[in-house]
Write a structure and sequence with these properties.
With about 300 residues, the protein is α+β, with helices and mostly antiparallel strands. The protein is built from ten helices and twelve strands. Strands 7, 8, 9, 10, 11 and 12 form a six-stranded antiparallel beta sheet that branches. A four-stranded antiparallel beta sheet has the order 2-5-1-6.
């Protein structure tokens, strides 16, 4: 009324699992709605399971939704213009990042795989009438903070004190307390990568392998050069390795207060602005790509409360 903002004025809290570092076991379940389940019923069902699951057996659960789905239910509760990864991203030399957008993601993390397994199965039983699993990936740490290329992953990550300012939408903005999540599964061509010398690998990444020092000068087509956060904006990464000895790679799990830095980094990697592709894309291939809106705890609870009152 009277032209005043209709955005929430009470503080909104991010889902705590975003920042729960040090968890050894990870599981990503991407879900699609089972028709004829409504979008509202789908969100209510997921909201209804989030709170108890995060307080049981030392398991963290972060939930995110297709941006268009959340916008239909809360038009002012999500950043303007934020959409799903609905079309393939095509770059230089016919390069392609596939769009595999789904309706929701459940990200479980915990101290051990058995508790993650049990809580994920319990969650799927609770969602059986409204959701089906579209993709499932198990993640785990490798040599403390390295990915399966052998390099330190997330060298430019903010500290945990700084991370909320990077990953979480601030108060006074649409979607406050929430976050933008980019989720991609990257398959490594281990044979081609391991055939390179250490020096050649370092030029691809743009950092030294033993101690992750940025090369000076850094190659323009290096991964560091093509994803320069000083240029595109900062993000908070929770990447983990996934897979088996014969089929493995990296789950890119990137959080940001805005989709723009993430989109610009992807475009730069694909060589869209200038025809120069990220060298790393010649040794690792994206197999999935999706954007999700990760609402605040309070926004999730609003739907859970409705489900309980009508249940």
């Amino acid at each position: 009324m009277g032209g005043k903002s209709m955005l929430p004025t009470t503080p909104r809290s991010p889902q705590t699992g975003i920042f729960a570092m040090g968890t050894a076991s990870q599981l990503y379940l991407e879900l699609d709605r089972v028709r004829p389940a409504s979008g509202l019923g789908f969100v209510r069902a997921i909201a209804g399971l989030r709170e108890p699951r995060t307080t049981m057996a030392g398991v963290n659960l972060v939930v995110g939704f297709r941006p268009e789905l959340w916008r239909r239910l809360r038009p002012r509760g999500i950043p303007s213009g934020f959409t799903g990864f609905n079309r393939d991203l095509r770059g230089a030399d016919g390069y392609r990042m596939p769009a595999t957008q789904h309706d929701a993601v459940l990200w479980f993390s915990g101290v051990s795989q058995d508790v993650v397994f049990d809580e994920a199965r319990a969650s799927l039983r609770a969602l059986d009438s409204v959701a089906k699993v579209a993709d499932e990936v198990v993640g785990w740490p490798y040599q403390h903070d390295r990915d399966l290329s052998g390099f330190v992953d997330g060298s430019e990550n903010p500290t945990l004190l700084e991370a909320p300012g990077v990953a979480i939408i601030p108060e006074g903005r649409a979607g406050a307390g929430g976050s933008v999540l980019l989720l991609q599964k990257w398959h490594h061509d281990a044979s081609r990568w391991e055939a390179l010398s250490t020096t050649a690998q370092e030029h691809v990444i743009g950092r030294s392998k033993p101690d992750s020092v940025e090369l000076d000068p850094k190659p323009a087509d290096s991964h560091v050069g093509r994803t320069d956060q000083d240029k595109f904006g900062r993000i908070f990464r929770r990447n983990v390795p996934y897979g088996t000895v014969t089929d493995h790679g990296t789950m890119f799990v990137g959080f940001c207060a805005s989709p723009l830095p993430l989109v610009r980094m992807l475009e730069s990697m694909a060589g869209i602005p200038d025809g120069v592709r990220d060298s790393l894309t010649r040794y690792t291939e994206p197999q999935t790509g999706a954007f999700y809106f990760v609402p605040s705890i309070e926004a999730i609870r609003e739907f859970a409360s409705v489900a309980e009152s009508r249940g």
